[in-house]
Amino acid sequence: MVLTCIINCFIHTIMYTYYFLAAWGSNVQKAVTPLKRWITIAQMIQFVVLILYASQKYVLKDCEIVNNYVVVLFVGNVVINFFMFHNFYQKTYKEVKKVQ
Description:
GO molecular function, one term: fatty acid elongase activity
Helix content: over 70%
Family: Belongs to the ELO family.
Order of helices and strands: HHHH
Pfam families: ELO (PF01151)
Keywords: Fatty acid biosynthesis, Fatty acid metabolism, Lipid biosynthesis, Lipid metabolism, Membrane, Transferase, Transmembrane, Transmembrane helix
Strand content: under 5%
Radius of gyration: 17 Å
Protein name: Elongation of very long chain fatty acids protein
Structural class: mainly alpha
Shape: elongated
Largest sheet: none
């Protein structure tokens, strides 16, 4: 479980650093805007890693640390978040290329 917390903290540190820098004004915001796409990709990768990490309970049969219901709820939550971020990515970054 520590791994998931470390990954989550790392991604959020990057994300909030971006927001901090973007709040400095339009010049800085223009400079850091290209990072938005990569932050979204990193968040989606994080969700995939979390799903794989949580599903190891079913691969390693002797793993009885977490209740099955907790794993199902956790994975369900992460899958929903992944699809929301994926939808955002498609609408924000893929449709922009079509317009240009």
